[in-house]
């Protein structure tokens, strides 16, 4: 028997988590999704007929052991204020997946101190390959910590943080990171096509190569630099490609990209915290 989880917001990330939980064996009957958007509810209900959907967040909260806040950061304040009476009466574990919204602000909007876990998952959760960093506030019991971890571990890897401020960097790395991977795949596919390969062949080779590199690195005791060196024959082809990427500033570009994402997360926290 699973604990009942209410997702507030049934958008992209909530559906990735719901799909991953169900694929891992979580009971559909123990899942609620609240979203004012009929099409979002229909989409979720169509995929997982055994779960509960509602347009009324308070109805979902009334059944929940865990409430997952999965709306856009910009509307989270308003959504929390509307849910505060239901949350204060039920006192579930609250899990926020929102980027750049501080725990103190969420507690304030929800009407006072609560057990709150902030976390940053990512969309590969849908296929059980998510990566989530979590941080618990002082009101979270050991049992609730285990519960939050069991939910996120069902959809991939988990890592606890001691310092909430580190979630901004996590958002820049693994929260937004799948998009960097998809961009790399797109670029490799397009370049392969430009070099004369059929598009479908280029797509499959690009996908399997990125997947294979990540799988090999995950399963190896060696670091990425060592594995990279093993592909790079002296005087060979890889050396030429890597020289172009290094001289084009790929490492600095990644640092600048992730700094921009990290800074946006901080900016959201500052802006929304004044709400
Ligand atoms: N997408 C990702 O890869 C990741 C997202 N996140 C975080 O997850 C959260 C959701 O992002 P994402 O799934 O991408 O966004 P989406 O816009 O796809 O989903 C949010 C959903 O919440 C709905 N919503 C709006 N108001 C309410 C309300 N009052 N009650 C219930 N639902 C409501 C929205 O409806 P409508 O469209 O009508 O506004 C929408 O369907 C964000 O805070 C984001 O920072 C975290 C990690 C990764
Ligand atoms: O782009 C965003 O703001 C969200 C948070 C991390 C991934 N998507």
TrEMBL record:
<feature type="domain" description="Pyrroline-5-carboxylate reductase dimerisation">
    <location>
        <begin position="164"/>
        <end position="268"/>
    </location>
</feature>
<keyword id="KW-0028">Amino-acid biosynthesis</keyword>
<keyword id="KW-0963">Cytoplasm</keyword>
<keyword id="KW-0641">Proline biosynthesis</keyword>
<keyword id="KW-0560">Oxidoreductase</keyword>
<dbReference type="GO" id="GO:0004735">
    <property type="term" value="F:pyrroline-5-carboxylate reductase activity"/>
</dbReference>
<dbReference type="InterPro" id="IPR053790">
    <property type="entry name" value="P5CR-like_CS"/>
</dbReference>
<dbReference type="InterPro" id="IPR036291">
    <property type="entry name" value="NAD(P)-bd_dom_sf"/>
</dbReference>
<dbReference type="InterPro" id="IPR029036">
    <property type="entry name" value="P5CR_dimer"/>
</dbReference>
<dbReference type="InterPro" id="IPR028939">
    <property type="entry name" value="P5C_Rdtase_cat_N"/>
</dbReference>
<dbReference type="InterPro" id="IPR008927">
    <property type="entry name" value="6-PGluconate_DH-like_C_sf"/>
</dbReference>
<protein>
    <recommendedName>
        <fullName>Pyrroline-5-carboxylate reductase</fullName>
        <ecNumber>1.5.1.2</ecNumber>
    </recommendedName>
</protein>
<keyword id="KW-0521">NADP</keyword>
<feature type="binding site">
    <location>
        <begin position="8"/>
        <end position="13"/>
    </location>
    <ligand>
        <name>NADP(+)</name>
    </ligand>
</feature>
<feature type="domain" description="Pyrroline-5-carboxylate reductase catalytic N-terminal">
    <location>
        <begin position="4"/>
        <end position="100"/>
    </location>
</feature>
<dbReference type="GO" id="GO:0005737">
    <property type="term" value="C:cytoplasm"/>
</dbReference>
<feature type="binding site">
    <location>
        <begin position="70"/>
        <end position="73"/>
    </location>
    <ligand>
        <name>NADP(+)</name>
    </ligand>
</feature>
<dbReference type="Pfam" id="PF14748">
    <property type="entry name" value="P5CR_dimer"/>
</dbReference>
<comment type="similarity">
    <text>Belongs to the pyrroline-5-carboxylate reductase family.</text>
</comment>
<comment type="function">
    <text>Catalyzes the reduction of 1-pyrroline-5-carboxylate (PCA) to L-proline.</text>
</comment>
<dbReference type="Pfam" id="PF03807">
    <property type="entry name" value="F420_oxidored"/>
</dbReference>
<dbReference type="InterPro" id="IPR000304">
    <property type="entry name" value="Pyrroline-COOH_reductase"/>
</dbReference>
<comment type="pathway">
    <text>Amino-acid biosynthesis; L-proline biosynthesis; L-proline from L-glutamate 5-semialdehyde: step 1/1.</text>
</comment>
<dbReference type="GO" id="GO:0055129">
    <property type="term" value="P:L-proline biosynthetic process"/>
</dbReference>
């Amino acid at each position: 028997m699973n604990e009942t989880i209410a997702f507030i917001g049934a958008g992209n990330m909530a559906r990735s988590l719901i799909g991953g939980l169900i694929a891992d064996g979580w009971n559909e009957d123990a899942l609620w999704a609240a979203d004012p958007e009929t099409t979002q509810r229909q989409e979720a209900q169509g995929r997982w007929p055994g779960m509960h959907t509602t347009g009324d967040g308070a109805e979902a909260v009334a059944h929940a052991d865990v409430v997952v806040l999965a709306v856009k950061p910009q509307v989270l304040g308003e959504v929390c204020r509307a849910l505060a009476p239901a949350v204060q009466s039920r006192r579930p574990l609250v899990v926020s997946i929102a980027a750049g919204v501080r725990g103190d602000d969420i507690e304030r909007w929800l009407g006072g101190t609560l057990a709150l876990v902030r976390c940053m998952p990512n969309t590969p959760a849908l296929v059980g390959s998510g990566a989530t960093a979590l941080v618990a506030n002082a009101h979270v019991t050991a049992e609730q910590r285990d519960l939050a971890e069991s939910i996120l571990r069902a959809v991939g890897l988990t890592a606890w943080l001691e310092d909430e401020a580190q979630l901004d960097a996590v958002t820049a790395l693994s929260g937004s990171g799948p998009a960097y991977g998809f961009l790399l795949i797109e670029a490799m596919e397009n370049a392969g096509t430009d070099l004369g390969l059929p598009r479908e062949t280029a797509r499959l080779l690009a996908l399997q190569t990125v997947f294979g590199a990540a799988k090999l690195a995950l399963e190896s005791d060696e670091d990425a630099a060592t594995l990279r060196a093993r592909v790079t024959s002296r005087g060979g082809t890889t050396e030429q490609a890597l020289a172009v990427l290094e001289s084009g500033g790929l490492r600095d570009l990644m640092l600048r990209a992730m700094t921009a994402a990290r800074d946006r997360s901080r900016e959201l926290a500052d802006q929304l915290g004044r709400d």
